[in-house]
Each structure stands twice: as structure tokens, then as C-alpha cells.
Amino acid sequence: MHDVSASRAPETFVPLTASAVLVNAVGLHARPSVKLTQCAKRFAGAIDIALAADGPWTNAKSPVKVMRVKAPQGAMLYFRVAGPDAEAALAALLALVHDGFGEA
């Protein structure tokens, strides 16, 4: 008997990237960090955040790691997303930042 799944190549996803300016007055503090990670966890793909286009990258699904980014107001947040729902995840994250995490 032949196992069909064993002969399939693993699915690979090209990472999507985008950036947004952090507009809320106090930057990426505890509350926005939690909101960002809650949003990221709704999606299956890998989601990373950085303060520079070339990294270093931080797992956006970890509230502690996101808080360590310590991004001030006006900082550019870079997102790198890969997975089956990458486009939806990126759109949701950008909307959250543009909205000032509901506190701007």
C-alpha cells in the first residue's frame, strides 16, 4: 500500500511583509502588546514583528517577547507573516496598528 501523503512535497509559503507607524501615544506597552498577540494567535501562520525591515524578528504570538520590543510612538513596526492565512493575518495586524490598538 502506498502512502499518498508521504510522496507529497511539504507546503511552503512565501512570507509577506508590511509595515505601519505606531500611532498610539504610549507606544507598544502591555495592553497593545496583548492585543497584538491575541490578534496574531487567531491565525495559523508564523507571524513576526520587528523595528527594522531586516530584523531582528520577534514572535508576535508571544506577549512577553512583543513587550520586549519596546516600540515608542512613531516607531515603524515591520511584520513578516507566512502561512495559509497570511494575507488575512497581515490585514488584521495592520488594521490594529492603524487604529492605535483602540486607544489612539
N- to C-terminal separation?
60 Å
Strand order of the largest sheet: 1-4-2-3
- The stretches of 5 or more residues where confidence is low (pLDDT under 50) are 5-9
Succession of helices and strands: HEHEEHEH
Portion in beta strands: 15-25%
Number of strands: 4
Mean of all residue-level pLDDT scores: 89
- Give the overall shape, derived from the CA principal axes: globular
Task: Tell me the major beta sheet.
Answer: 4 strands, antiparallel
Query: What class, by secondary structure content?
Result: alpha+beta
Give the helix level as a range of percent.
25-40%
How many distinct helices? 4
Rg from Cα: 16 Å
What can you tell me about this protein's structure?
With 104 residues, the protein is an alpha+beta fold. Helices cover 33% and strands 19% of the residues. The protein contains four helices and four strands, in the order H-E-H-E-E-H-E-H. It has helices spanning 4-7, 30-41, 63-67, 86-98; strands at residues 16-21, 46-50, 58-59, 76-82. The chain has a four-stranded antiparallel β-sheet, covered by helices on one side. Helix 2 runs antiparallel to helix 4. The chain is globular, with a radius of gyration of 16 Å.
Question: Gist?
Answer:
With 104 residues, the protein is of the alpha+beta class.
Descriptors:
33% helix, four-stranded antiparallel sheet, alpha+beta, 104 residues
Sequence-ordered SSE layout with sheet pairings:
Layout: H1 4-7, E1 16-21, H2 30-41, E2 46-50, E3 58-59, H3 63-67, E4 76-82, H4 86-98
Antiparallel strand pairs: 1-4, 2-3, 2-4
